[in-house]
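Worked example 3 (structure in, sequence out).
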């Protein structure tokens, strides 16, 4: 049995003396990581609340992670009020409406009032951890804050728009900056206005008790026979960031050697049609099954139904999909920048690093043709994620960073 609660006996409030009487706010919920961290900190008896913007993208709602959403729901058009009725949210979640989806000119005063209300909320706490884009506003709250970056730093340093200038200032004024994507060290290292000593790495939190090997034979049987190979990629279709086109071309080569295979891909984002056209031009449309984005409880079933999971092949690190799949004991193919991954973790992960079409295809064949190798890679993957990404390990790291920011 996995020792997923290896630090459960730690008295956190004794260990982190300065946090004994502190009220913490995690503001925002990028990739549901705010929810994962807050949930674990609550288990550790830390006084933390999570503030969730109900007009945010559907995948940033806790309901996407732990609610009872249908697999037919569209994350781009989720009704936040309706979503909350699908479960009993914890009392430590505070919902607010940042009015993302209403026209600025028509509702200018309401938007201004929502920003004022947000700053008032911040002032109820002793320290804040701000997800995108809330460090823009926390810099005016008078409360110490940590900026949490899950990739936003790839965009705002390069524009002179007013919002981007505020974003840069918000990061500069933060007590610390948490970076979740190791490849973005390459960017932060080159920004002269950021103090490098306050930029700290902390991975996404993955709950090993939720993301674990499960029986998904029924779902698998919808797509392949038991002896066939089933691939799965949950990645958004954005070629210039994710490299989906390389992955599809690699699969076209792979399927010539492993014809008894199917590939499930998720149909979402700007290059969805381009990916479908590419598959058609390569003559493999009948080998690819397209599904819509599914909430996490269903996504876990897809991880477990598959033999190999493929993520992204451009950026050089990972979001939540790779560690989720690895925690479900599945081998994953992804491209990672070795120097930045070692800088973040002190070692390389048990992943077959793949950048070119040839590398993706070759590593797919290694895994597909050797069941024992697949099993070993899956087992090592789960062990590594528990060591590096498990909720308790990551939550303690967040608490350590917050304490050092006071």
């Amino acid at each position: 049995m996995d020792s997923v609660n290896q630090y459960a006996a730690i008295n956190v409030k004794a260990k982190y003396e300065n946090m004994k009487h502190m009220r913490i706010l995690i503001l925002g919920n990028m990739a549901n990581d705010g929810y994962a961290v807050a949930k674990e900190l609550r288990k550790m008896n830390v006084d933390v609340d999570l503030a969730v913007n109900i007009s945010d993208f559907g995948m940033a709602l806790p309901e996407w992670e732990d609610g009872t959403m249908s697999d037919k729901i569209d994350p781009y058009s989720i009704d936040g009020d309706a979503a909350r009725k699908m479960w009993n949210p914890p009392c430590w979640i505070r919902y607010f409406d940042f009015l993302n989806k209403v026209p600025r000119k028509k509702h200018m005063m309401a938007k201004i009032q929502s920003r004022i209300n947000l700053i008032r909320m911040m002032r109820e706490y002793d320290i804040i951890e701000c997800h995108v884009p809330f460090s823009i506003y926390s810099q005016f709250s008078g409360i110490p804050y940590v900026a949490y970056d899950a990739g936003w730093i790839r965009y705002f340093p390069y524009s002179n728009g007013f919002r981007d200038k505020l974003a840069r200032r918000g990061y500069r004024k933060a007590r610390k900056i948490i970076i979740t994507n190791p490849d973005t060290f390459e960017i932060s290292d080159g920004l002269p206005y950021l103090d490098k000593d306050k930029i700290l790495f902390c991975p996404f939190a993955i709950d090993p008790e939720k993301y674990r090997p499960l029986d998904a034979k029924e779902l698998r049987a919808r797509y392949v026979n038991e002896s066939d190979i089933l691939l799965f990629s949950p990645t958004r279709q954005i070629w210039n960031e994710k490299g989906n086109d390389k992955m599809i071309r690699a699969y076209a080569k792979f399927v010539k050697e492993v014809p008894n295979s199917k590939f499930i891909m998720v149909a979402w984002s700007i290059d969805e049609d381009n990916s479908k056209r590419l598959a058609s031009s390569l003559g493999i449309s009948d080998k690819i099954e397209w599904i819509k984005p599914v909430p996490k409880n269903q996504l876990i079933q897809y991880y477990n139904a598959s033999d190999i999971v493929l993520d992204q092949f451009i950026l050089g690190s990972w979001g939540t999909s790779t560690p989720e799949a690895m925690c479900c004991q599945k081998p994953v193919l992804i491209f990672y920048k070795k120097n930045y991954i070692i800088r973040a973790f002190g070692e390389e992960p048990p992943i077959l690093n793949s950048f070119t079409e040839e590398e993706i295809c070759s590593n797919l064949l290694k895994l597909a043709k050797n069941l024992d190798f697949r099993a070993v890679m899956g087992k090592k993957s789960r062990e590594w994620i528990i060591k590096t990404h498990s909720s308790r390990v990551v939550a303690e790291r967040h608490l350590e960073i917050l304490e050092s920011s006071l």
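Notes: The longest helix spans residues 371-388. Confidence is low (pLDDT under 50) at residues 1-11.
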